[in-house]
Structures are given as structure tokens and as C-alpha cells.
């Protein structure tokens, strides 16, 4: 994917850039409009949450948790500043559980977009299912990077590794990992990865984050892989790939990690091999029927949706149940663009054109619609050209 910095375009794998900001953690803002997730009421919390004072004096903690979960999401940053106990609860998985039990979960689309006229640089914006736009995210701390991974974990957005590019073209891989808390509207830094890398595959599977392959220091092509466990807050090396691989992407389906696309030192062109990691057996195996030169991808349900560079007017849909592919033509209705990026909201696939035209409309693919009615149009669209997007339920 392309990477943008103030209107200047660099092409480098699944890349994105942010403007430089030296702060360590963006401060909370009382004007944020981000709303929260869900989970269960009686789980044990992390050590910093297990304190003796009640959440709300005079109420059992489970009732108090439920009360806090009913508060509108725009008030979460203010709630988080009341006391450490409230802040710890809002940051925990348990808060998402309780929100879900209370029927308060909201699904929002976080889009990294760039001004098509090159005036505003890249920025994250937030859209809900009606297309309503909310406040932009605070600028991520740290230097401008390219080639990093983007993952959603427990209602939080993770920006993983990447590299900085000096004016003379020198590339410096980074092990840095930053986390955006969608409830508290703030950034923080997580532990560094074991191996600095960029242009690698990255995905969440069963509550763990995996980073695979890419380029390392000195442009070395990597076969190593590692996993982040949010409970231990550590990155651990896992079984490496059988061959180096870079410029690839990853996704999780049915508890397995798939690595597809890109190149390796054993392929002349783009690789059709799919590396599959069984997270229970801790072992890799191969499939031979992957897509190549993928320009957009997204996972919806138990299916992967891809658009290949050579065939921009067809969706390639992979079904993990039988490891099969099918092709679906993309209609011209809504946009004459032949290049798209994907978004997912409300169980539907959104196709955002990369070339804006007067009056263009976002295409929508509903896999659960009646035959012949899968394709529709949507009023949801970013303010600029979509570089990538993730969906967060909180």
C-alpha cells in the first residue's frame, strides 16, 4: 500500500506515515467522540485494577461496572481522569465485556486518509455506520515511519514497527510499537519488538499479535516471526518461516495465521505460496493457491476479500472452510475508479475509490444479501483518499 507524508507519496508495502510528534503520550481530550466495547462482569482484573476502594461507594462492583458502561462514549476520557480505578476499568477487556452485555457496543471505522490534493498530509478519521464523522485522532508520537503494521487488539489500535527514511534515502528499521486507546483517546508506547522490521506481515489471532518476515537492518530479508501477548506485555520469538518473505500481508481465520503475497528469495516474481501458522501446534505449513500482487485485502466473517493488481475489477474471495477461491465482478456503478481500498462496517465490505471524481459514491458488497442484490452503494466515504482502515468495536 502507498505511504503519504504531507502529500508526497512513497510506495513501500503495507505502509503509512504520520507527522512527527515528540510527545510520549497524547493527553486525553474531553471533546473526543469515541465510544466503547464489551465483555463479562465478574472477571479478574489486572494487578493495577485490583484495589480495595469500591468503584462507586455504596454499590457492589458488578453493579458499578454496569453503570459506568452505560455512560456515553464521548465522556470516557473525562471518566478516565476521575481516579485510577475508573481509568483501569475503562482500559480493560472487562469494560468491553460489560458494554456488550449492556447492548452498548458500537462499531466504528478508523480510516487513515490523505488529502487527494496533497495539502493536509495523512490523518486518522473515524466514521460510524451512518457515515457520521467524528473527531480525528491525536497525532501519534514518534518520528514519521513507513512500512509498519496496523492491528486491532482488545478495542485498541496498534502501530507496529516500520522504518524511518532520512533525506539521503537511508532506511532505519524500528522495533517501536505504539497503541491508541479508542476509549481514552490517547496514545502510549508498548514494549519494543525483538527484531526491527518493515514491509512485513502483521495480524491478530486469538488475542495475540503476530509479526512475520519483512526487511531488517541493512535491508536483510527476514524469515523470523514473533508474537505479542497483551497479558505478559512481551514479544516472543516463534517458529520462523521456511523462507524469507517481504512485502506480504497477514490475516487470521479460524484460529490460524495466514501469510500471503509479497516475495521471497526463492521466487522470481510474487509468491503464490501461502504460509499458514497453526497457533495451537506452533508450526507452519504451506498452501499453493494464494493471490499475488494484492492491492487491497480485508477479512469478513470466515472469508478473505482481495483485489489483485492485474485484475482490479474483480473481487477474489477465499473461503477458509474448503480453501477455495471464487471471483466476483466489481460493477462500475458508484465509481469508474479501477483502484480501491477496503473498509468493513456492519458486516459489509466497503470499496473506497483511490481516485476521487465528482459525485463518486462508495460501493458496498453485502455477502449475506439475496443473490443479485449483493452490490449496493453507500454514503460512507473518507474526507480524503483511503490508505487503509480498521474496524473497532467498543
From TrEMBL:
Cell membrane among keywords: no
Xref: Gene3D superfamilies: Kelch-type beta propeller (2.120.10.80)
InterPro entries tied to this protein: F-box-like_dom_sf, F-box_dom, Kelch-typ_b-propeller, Kelch_1
Domain F-box: 59-99
Statement: the UniProt record of this protein carries the keyword Repeat: yes
Keywords assigned: Kelch repeat, Repeat
Matching SUPFAM superfamilies: F-box domain, Kelch motif
Protein name stated in the entry: OLC1v1028662C1
Species for this entry: Oldenlandia corymbosa var. corymbosa
